[in-house]
Amino acid sequence: MNKLLYPLVLILACSLYGQQSRTVYVIDGDTLTNPYLDLNEVVVLPNIKFRSYDDYVSYYRLQKRTIKVYPYAKLASERLTTLNLRLANIKRKRAKKRYTKRVEKYLEFEFKDELKRFSRSEGRILIKLIHRETGFTAHELIKNLRNGWRAFIYQTTAKMFDINLKTSYNTTDVEEDALIEYILQKAFNEGVLDPGDKKSK
């Protein structure tokens, strides 16, 4: 019997000797090989209580529209950042205007058909989300990048479709904006939408 135990003890001793040594940490009685645990951020959002079935339907319509429109607002923010970086490198005012017009025509060509298919409600949400993403209302962006006259013309045209380019995004005072923010945070948390490099607001 002892002859059988010797090889077994020898094998066990060799396997124990071959193990790599690791530094272990004892924290509150727990033994850990790594003192830091990498955890993903978890955002806990409260459930919304709807007063009626109509409120429930309105919320889900708003959710569908917000998720459809958000990528365009995010893209607008990215394009604005790129435009501002390029404009900073252009010295002459006339060259800046020419470049801005060229970018405007390109964007109009690229997105005109898609944006035409937006409903008025989706257009209103897009205006709010552009303010959320850029920090400027659509009217301010047009005025800064083009001129006040162009902003006035666009505002007048938008008013005919019951859209106000001066609308800002205000989650504290406007219930719809608070719901839009809730929808966005929930979509970011679930991976439906990508918040990008910007911090969630």
Give an overview of the whole structure:
The protein has 201 residues and is mainly α. 64% of the residues lie in helices and 3% in strands. It has a domain at 61-190. α2 crosses α4 (120-134), α2 packs across α7 (175-190) and α5 (138-145) runs antiparallel to α6. Strands 1-2 form a two-stranded antiparallel ribbon.
**What is the number of E strands?**
2
The SSE string, one letter per element, is: HEEHHHHHH
Q: Helical residue percent?
A: 55-70%
Major beta sheet, strand line-up: 1-2
Radius of gyration: 28 Å
Assembly category: single chain
> Which band does the percent of strand residues land in?
under 5%
Distance between the termini: 72 Å
Structural class: mainly alpha
Mean pLDDT: 81
Shape: elongated
Brief sketch in words of this structure:
By secondary structure, the chain is mainly α. The protein is built from seven helices and two strands; from the N terminus they run H-E-E-H-H-H-H-H-H.
Record keyword descriptors for this entry.
201 residues, mainly alpha, two-stranded antiparallel ribbon, 7 helices, elongated, disordered C terminus
Helices, strands, pairings?
Layout: H1 2-17, E1 25-27, E2 30-32, H2 53-89, H3 93-116, H4 120-134, H5 138-145, H6 148-160, H7 175-190
Antiparallel strand pairs: 1-2
